[in-house]
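Action item from last week, closing it out:
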Amino acid sequence: MSTLHPHTRHVALLVAMVFFMQLLNSSMVLTSLPQIAEAFGVAPLDVSLGVAIYTIAMATFVPFAGWLADQIGARRVFGTAILIFCATSIACGLSQSLTAFVVARALQGIASAMITPVGRIVVLNKASKSELLDATALVTWPALFAPVIGPVLGGAITTYASWRWNFFINVPIGLLALVIVPRLLSNDPPATRRRFDIPGFLLIGGGLCGTLIGLQLFATLDGDPLIATGVTLTGAALCALAIRHFHRTPAPLLGIGPFATATFRHAAIHGGLAFRTITAAMPFLLPLYFQIAFGLSPVAAGSLILVYFLGNLGMKAVTSPLLRRFGFRTVLVLNGIVGSASIAGCALLSPVTPSPLVMAVLLLAGLTRSMQFTALNTLAFADIGPEHRSAGATWMALLQQVSMSMGIVIGTAVIETARLLHGGNQLSLADFHLTFVVLAVVALVASLSFQRLSLTAGSDVSGHGVKAAPNA
């Protein structure tokens, strides 16, 4: 049974609605790139700059979001970011040239950078320890839901209306959120004021830009691997310098305090980052799998992906009770093993596999993905103190961006390697099968790494073992 106070639930639902708007937009626009290119009279590859600039702008300004929220208050930043996101969505939809579209997308990415970490801060500030599990479950579902239905909805809107409505659809959602924000969120006093860390911002912003640009170059099959490697390594070196700077400066842009907590390290970096990266590759690979290897139409492939989404939703009702009964370590290990098996199960499918069996594998993959995401996102904040919540939320937002990009790159790299090993000019069923096996092995190793957690890890949030403690 949910332990959420009604006000906390309403705040979590508000943040979830805004996250849904943000993530749905990102996934919908990918389906309309050819139509946007036609409207501007350019090549589709040129329009992809609008996708890249959004990601780059978001990565650059996410570190700034936590600092700004500490200075002027999370409610002000969150509400302003929603307003800018809506305004730039209108600008994207009204764009008459590629230049105007790219500028609008860059500004939209900056607004999105404010929404993600500050939305989490808003929920963390309202939820008590006992409420954190259920609150996190609510704000996690957009990340599972939107990327799956976004391409289907975006394709339908582009086909039957116009690509411009893929952006205009954000406006009513955003305006509703703007009406609710002042009713639900108090204007909390700013945290201790601190000077803006310009060197830290330049280092971490430049590092994230370089890393994400390099990863995107790797994902471009006709790109130069040497350039991609150089850009990625340069970005990684700047990130390393940024972390060194954060260690040494007395008032860093991003505090590293959250990483002193074992549960945060495991959820954010150790097994958590690896598992999120692998599962991020699945929504990218599955549509290709069903269309290229199975020969299905985009509509038929999309229908199967919806089963995957239903699995994501289906686990919501039982995730919190299971975590309370068995604790984070047991759930993350066992659910991760089952999730890895479901990824490996995709390697056993073929065009002649009965549809019910295909759907069962996808449903299981969706169920385990949902539980693992909710558990990881809750565990990250289970034991860190209030003074580290802002930095923790910002770090999680940064790592989310990195894992999404890495997922596509790793998926692309593995399947292309499989194709080269088979010596084929086109992707084959065997190439996909080998890719799913490799991803399953990595996911399994990541899941087993959670055995290093204590049995009572995050018990203040999950409640696991708390009642038994007096009799121990």
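Closing note: Residues 259-460 form a domain with the Growth Hormone; Chain: A; fold (CATH 1.20.1250.20).
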